[in-house]
């Protein structure tokens, strides 16, 4: 009887242990399931710790990006404001400089016209022509019955004003040349057989003794002067040489369509130099540094 009883007790014990294991496993499953349901409920309510931690991190990143965007916007706005103020000041300065330049050019043109009118008046006085026409005082008589009806005189046409492009020295030189030619013509008419003395001041040689005038290339393009294979621009310091071998220190004040204006360094007076004068060599321009 003992062996049977022992075997039965062992079988019952093994069966009891297996039931306990299944029960523990079931309990663990239920606990884990309950934990997951609780976490899901907390997530829906927004109280889950992991959810709150990650939300806080996202919120910090969002605030950081907003702050960087605001700083970038502020910097860009300040830069635009600075550029606007700078361009506005530059526009005002350019406007003021243009006004001053326009005024100086107009004053120089008026002074040049005034000088030309004075030279014109002086030339007319030297030649005996006067611009003032004095009216002739006539005595009016009664018309006789058989006299024809007088025709009214037409008004005197105004004398056109001449603009001389030559300097006083060039005009005087031309007058001296004309006087020499007139003397030669006079001698040829009244003294046809008189020998012409080479030493006589009235003698004109058949071939000119002076060397031909040197020609220079001169033109104006885009507000700059191209002269003798060099470019010259406004505000450039130069030396101005004339046929009389005078050298004047000048600054180019403006470049026109067919002429340039220069301002003397000594007394700040202005002179107009035409392209034709530069081409004929009446005036020669040298760079200040190279002269």
TrEMBL record:
Residues 1-21 are annotated as: Disordered. GO terms for molecular function: enzyme binding; histone deacetylase activity. The lineage of its organism: Eukaryota, Metazoa, Chordata, Craniata, Vertebrata. Residues 26-127 form a coiled coil. It is found in: Nucleus. Keywords: Coiled coil, Nucleus, Repressor, Transcription, Transcription regulation. The keyword Coiled coil applies. GO terms for cellular component: cytosol; nuclear body. This is SDS3 homolog, SIN3A corepressor complex component. It comes from the Eukaryota. It holds the Pfam family Sds3. SMART domains: Sds3. One of its GO terms (biological process) is negative regulation of transcription by RNA polymerase II. Residues 1-10 have a biased composition (Acidic residues). Its main location: nucleus. Transmembrane segments: none annotated. Residues 12-21 have a biased composition (Basic and acidic residues). InterPro entries: Sds3. The keyword Disulfide bond does not apply.
